[in-house]
Amino acid sequence: MKALPLASLLLVLAATASTTGCASSCSATPDKLAALKRGMSYDEATAVMGCPGTQVGTQVTHDDLSTVEWDGPDRGVVSRTQLDFRDGRLLSFTTGNRGGW
């Protein structure tokens, strides 16, 4: 009877370790931010960041502007990094806290 709770705990720990490893490889770090260069394509920038990120804004005017967001670099999901793209090319990036934290 006690083996079932232990097995469940081991599964939860394994899933957490797997998820944490994936999230950390996909979040912003100082090294990744230093590797970003203005004018990079979206594909080049996401290769540096380790995953596609989450699109948080699109503004369609005469220029195609979009913003993509990743967690980090400092306090995980509390902080965020946003990359701004114009016509599919990196224009700039900013880092900051989410929601006034």
Task: Please summarize what this structure is.
The chain is α+β, with helices and mostly antiparallel strands and 101 residues long. It contains three helices and four strands.
Report on the architecture of this protein.
It is a single chain. The chain has 101 residues and is an alpha+beta fold. It has a single domain, classed as 2-Layer Sandwich (Beta-lactamase Inhibitory Protein, Chain:B, domain 1), CATH 3.30.1450.10. It is built from three helices and four strands, in the order H-H-H-E-E-E-E. A four-stranded antiparallel beta sheet has the order 1-2-3-4, covered by helices on one side. A hairpin with a 3-residue loop joins strand 1 and strand 2. The longest helix has 24 residues, at 3-26. The radius of gyration is 17 Å and the shape is globular. The model is unreliable at 1-23 (pLDDT under 50).
